[in-house]
Design a protein that fits this description.
Shape: globular
Largest sheet: 6 strands, mixed
Strand order of the largest sheet: 8-7-17-16-19-20
Protein name: Carboxypeptidase regulatory-like domain-containing protein
Keywords: Membrane, Transmembrane, Transmembrane helix
Number of strands: 29
Structural class: mainly beta
CATH class of the largest domain: Mainly Beta
Number of helices: 3
CATH architecture of the largest domain: Sandwich
Organism: Natronomicrosphaera hydrolytica
């Protein structure tokens, strides 16, 4: 393609029979043997999006960061800000000292507008995008508390709170076309095990310890569900109840491959029967669009609403305890409270490749009610055998 200084262009040496040029909503077809063809395209200037951002106290929100997310885009917000490496992938602007802003034109409601400021945040999408001349921030929530393990406060422990957008529909595999945001906050405990996370999005989320699970892998453990409100503090205690759980994952007698146990993924989660919707008889023959339509319609029924409420209840009650195994396959998980649980350990290739798991080990167990809610006496699950597809070799006892 050759471009001229005045905005013209020409296409030469076309190697296809038909060349289509799409500009806006116009489609032009050019046959390969048609010779030189001239099209004049007149662009219309779109007006920028302007307005003002105000704090929850109706004060101008000066120097607030603004981000415009395209449909299907993703953004991570941690401790009330967006990492610099992500800013290259979104349209962004900043208000002036009086809270005024000017953004490139966008087509509502297909985008999502995020505003971040020391005094709060705004998440503008859908029909609300049609009136962005005045945006008012929601105050940050706060999560604070203490981490206790083994009856003692934990100093220097990393604490993580997070919440993510729900999927655009309840159908498996449907990510939807809307922009997606993942919100998190992270801090450390002091000498008394206390922590405070100050810039938390209001709503439902989870808080837990953030630990190393492998050479380059981290994750949450001892998680708790929290419901936060703007300008309010939720107080939690992580750990300090229940009892330790110990066990060892063992290899089959005919194992013939080596194992790097610390690379295995260990998880304890409370048990709860996951409800399933009553799928129609023609479900196997439906395409994805038809399945989504059926599910969205069924969700509006009394049965569907009860199903969604049950799913939400199970999500709120779910507890996660992730852990790393020692070099001999042993593990100890502190402070697991009373309840019914499932142990699951997955062993991958020693190289850490993304191939199928070599094997899995699992067991259901119960922690009975404990006097004074805590004991140092561990619950020993004994040896839990690895059920492998490709049996690895037994390490020396």
């Amino acid at each position: 393609m050759l471009k001229s200084p005045n905005g013209g262009f020409s296409l030469i040496e076309t190697l296809v029979l038909v060349l289509s040029i799409i500009v806006g909503l116009s489609l032009f077809a050019v046959a390969a043997d048609e010779g030189a063809v001239r099209y004049d395209i007149e662009l219309e200037r779109a007006e920028p999006v302007t307005g003002m951002v105000h704090t929850a106290d109706d004060e101008p929100a000066g120097w607030a960061d603004m981000f415009v997310l395209s449909p299907g885009g993703r953004l991570k917000i941690e401790n009330g800000s967006v990492a610099s490496y992500q800013r290259r992938n979104v349209v962004m602007a900043q208000t002036d000292d009086a809270g005024r802003f000017e953004l490139p034109p966008f087509e509502a409601p297909n985008v999502r507008l995020l505003v971040l400021h020391a005094e709060g945040y705004a998440d503008v999408h859908g029909e609300a995008l049609e009136q962005v001349d005045r945006i008012q921030l929601t105050r940050w929530s706060r999560v604070a508390g203490r981490v206790m393990l083994g009856g003692e406060p934990v100093e220097g422990d990393s604490v993580h709170v997070h919440s993510a957008d729900p999927p655009s529909s309840g159908m498996p595999g449907d990510a939807g076309a809307v922009a997606h945001m993942h919100w998190s906050g992270r801090g450390s405990t002091d000498a008394e095990g206390r922590f405070a996370l100050d810039r938390v999005r209001a709503g439902e989320g989870s808080v837990g310890r953030w630990i190393q699970l492998g050479p380059q892998t981290y994750g949450a453990t001892h998680t708790l569900r929290v419901q936060t409100e703007p300008d309010e503090t939720v107080i939690v205690q992580i750990g300090g109840e229940g009892r330790p759980v110990v066990s060892r994952i063992t290899l089959p007698e005919d194992a013939d491959r080596e194992v790097n146990w610390p690379q295995a993924r260990g998880l304890i989660t409370n048990r709860g029967k996951q409800p399933q919707p009553p799928l129609p008889e023609d479900w196997p023959t439906m395409d994805q669009t038809e399945r989504q339509a059926w599910y969205q319609q069924w969700q509006q029924t009394e049965e569907g609403r009860a199903f969604v409420a049950d799913q939400q209840r199970l999500a709120r009650e779910r507890r996660l305890f992730q852990f790393q195994l020692d070099s001999d396959g042993r593990f100890r998980v502190e402070d697991v409270p009373e309840g019914e649980y499932t142990l699951s350990v997955t062993l991958d290739e020693p190289s850490g490749s993304y191939s199928e798991p070599l094997g899995q080990a699992g067991r259901n167990f119960v922690i009975e009610p404990i006097e004074d809610d805590y004991t140092r006496e561990p619950l020993d699950l004994g040896s839990v055998p690895l059920q492998s597809r490709q049996t690895p070799s037994r390490e020396d006892e």
